[in-house]
Design a protein that fits this description.
heterodimer, A: alpha+beta, three-stranded antiparallel beta sheet, 13% strand, B: 187 residues, alpha/beta, Beta Polymerase, domain 2, 7 strands, 25% strand
């Protein structure tokens, strides 16, 4: 007779329960959107403790900026949130402009607003695509990428780059729009609202989608604010904090738009908020395009803006050549920024993106601090998935819309 | 002088070391001992519910004049949603004994901000529940955002050697699914 096997169900708090089952989710997990590693302690399938480990993409961006000129450091901001790089540039430029006391021409402000909202649309489309794919809806993914491709093509026409655009400049923007770009954007804004409706038809009342998102990771409003959530993640909980309304920058004070908020603060509400934001972004682009002819012929960069040309590289061999450095760059004319400090934040697609810059009156920033929304959102993951299942972690990471390039900096 | 600064001075007196306005933003210098009470007061009574940012700054070798002379500063950017007002607290921290009381019990978001500040600048946050390195590896030496930390260190991180050794060890196996005969675990 076979020996009798007794199965003890080991549970948290049960005397038989000795140690938790430890799982490392990531850094190569496809649904962690990069290199996020979650150190999970599980009890069966529910999460007992979660400890996010980040830093896999740490490039020392803040340290690097201290050793570059203001104009050179702007290129690094592209690499923060590489999905919406245009918005990052604008935030950085706003901070430096405030330090220098520069007034940006109206046309440049309108153009910046347009590229910021384009960044929002392309970021939200990527979010919708991957979030739906993680939860199990494949079709949305393909449609979203079709539209995002269109936007990236427009970016390419605007400045020649698709992802790391570096379009904004301290004091304005790099190039003016041509008529071709304006026409293409008009076509886009005409077409796009219908497409949002299409996506909503696919998943809005899809039974699987509802089961995976309704009531998952509910965050009450006070707690959301205390945990530092910003952007659509905060507005899903019902707090209408939007930097575009509270501290208007660029041309946001002359366009009309609404700030959508959720009610329950669950994953589904955050999804609804983002879908509504797509419509509002489209509306803002349209209004800015309508205003563009009023400013026809104006300069797109301020008078006193620092020189855009990169310093001429002089190849001077060092006495003892360093294996990594090789050549020195000398003879650079750099703008002098008056000493002071400033904190400027913008409403990036992911949330509040803040730049805190300290200047010591030389050509290089003394300290550049980036308040990255993804960093804060990842710190909120343990709180949000307490008591949920492993499968819900995927939904939580998706709903917070994190990008690890921005988190690790 | 804004209303908040007046109330802070009235309530905490000596803890308010200095105040200034930089680029139109109100800045208040606070002594570190009084920080938790000040932040608690601002959070509860002045409705600063949003801690927008917390970071450290190293002022070693900074030329322009500053109201305080300590090497480090921890900077708190607080925002009030109801009054739409930004207030910046700067807490000077001396070099010899770099510590600041934590504000994690008041703002949960401060948890990771403080961990990052400890990691990159070496400022300890007294009372923090879980003060570990965050962005750098656990066995990293030094604090990279300090001004005396070299941009390009001469020696490599010792962990790389370990990783390389491991890669060498694993390279004996063919990773297509079939193991090479004679490997440590093979045949």
């Amino acid at each position: 007779m076979a020996p009798k096997v007794e199965i003890v169900q080991r549970q948290f708090g049960h005397p038989e329960w000795e140690e938790p089952f430890v799982v490392n989710m990531g850094p190569q997990h496809p649904s962690t959107h990069g290199v996020l590693r979650l150190y999970l302690e599980l009890d069966g399938e529910s999460v007992v403790r979660c400890d996010p480990r980040i830093g896999y993409l740490h490039r020392g961006l803040e340290k690097l900026s201290e050793n570059l000129t203001y104009t050179q450091a702007m290129v690094l901001t592209d690499r923060l949130d590489y999905i919406s790089s245009a918005a990052n540039n604008v935030g950085y430029c706003l901070a430096v402009e405030k330090l220098m006391g520069l007034e940006v021409p109206r046309r440049a402000r309108l153009l910046r607003t347009i590229v910021c909202e384009m960044a929002r649309i392309s970021s939200h489309l990527l979010w919708l695509a991957t979030h739906a794919l993680d939860i199990g809806a494949m079709t949305v993914f393909l449609y979203c990428f079709r539209d995002r491709e269109w936007l990236l093509d427009i970016y390419e026409k605007i400045c020649g780059a698709r992802l790391t655009v570096s379009y904004a400049r301290v004091g304005g923007v790099r190039l003016d729009f041509t008529q071709e770009i304006v026409d293409e954007l008009y076509r886009f804004t005409e077409e796009f609202p219908g497409r949002i409706t299409d996506y909503e038809t696919l998943i809005d009342i899809n039974r699987i989608w509802l089961k995976r998102t309704k009531g998952i990771a509910v965050v009450p409003p006070e707690k959301a604010l205390n945990m530092g959530l910003t952007g659509p993640s905060l507005r899903g909980s019902g707090i209408p904090y939007d930097v575009r309304k509270f501290k208007p920058y660029d041309a946001y004070d002359e366009v009309e738009f609404e700030v959508p908020v959720g009610k329950n603060g669950d994953t589904y509400d955050r999804y609804r908020v983002r879908m509504e934001e797509l419509r509002q972004a489209n509306r803002i682009i349209r209004q800015c395009l309508d205003k563009l002819p009023e400013t026809e012929g104006e300069p797109v960069i301020a008078e006193g803006a620092p020189d855009l040309l990169m310093p001429e590289k002089k190849k001077v061999p060092e006495a003892a050549p360093h294996p990594k450095r090789g050549f020195l760059i000398k003879g650079a004319e750099v703008p002098v920024v008056p000493p002071g400090e400033v904190y400027v934040s913008i409403e990036a697609p992911k949330g509040e993106l803040g730049y805190y810059i300290v200047s010591d009156g030389s050509g290089k920033p003394w300290r550049v601090r980036v308040r990255a929304p993804s960093f804060v959102h990842i710190s909120a993951i343990p709180e949000m998935i307490k008591g949920h299942m492993v499968a819900d972690i995927i939904a939580v990471i998706g709903t917070l819309d994190v990008v690890l390039g921005e988190c690790d900096r | 002088m804004s209303e908040v600064v007046g109330k802070l001075k009235e309530r905490f007196g000596g803890a308010v070391l200095a105040e200034e306005v930089s680029c139109g933003q109100q800045v208040v210098f606070i002594a570190r001992e009084a920080l938790p009470e000040v932040v608690h007061f601002l959070h509860e009574e002045m409705d600063f519910k949003h801690l927008a940012d917390l970071c450290g700054v190293d002022y070693q070798g900074y030329k322009p004049k500053r109201p305080v002379s300590e090497r480090f500063e921890v900077v708190y950017n607080l925002y009030s949603l109801s009054r739409r007002e930004l207030l910046r607290l700067r807490v000077p921290v001396p070099e010899e004994d770099p510590w600041v009381p934590t504000v994690t019990p008041i703002f949960r978001v401060a948890n990771w901000f403080e961990r990052e500040c400890y990691d990159l600048l070496g400022i300890r946050f007294e009372g923090h529940p879980d003060l570990r390195r965050l962005l750098m590896p656990e066995d990293w030496k030094g604090h990279p955002l300090r001004k005396d930390y070299p941009l390009e260190p001469e020696e490599e991180w010792p962990g790389y050697e370990k990783l390389r050794e491991k890669a060498r060890e694993l390279s004996r196996f063919e990773w297509g699914g079939r193991r090479v005969r004679g490997g440590e675990h093979g045949a």
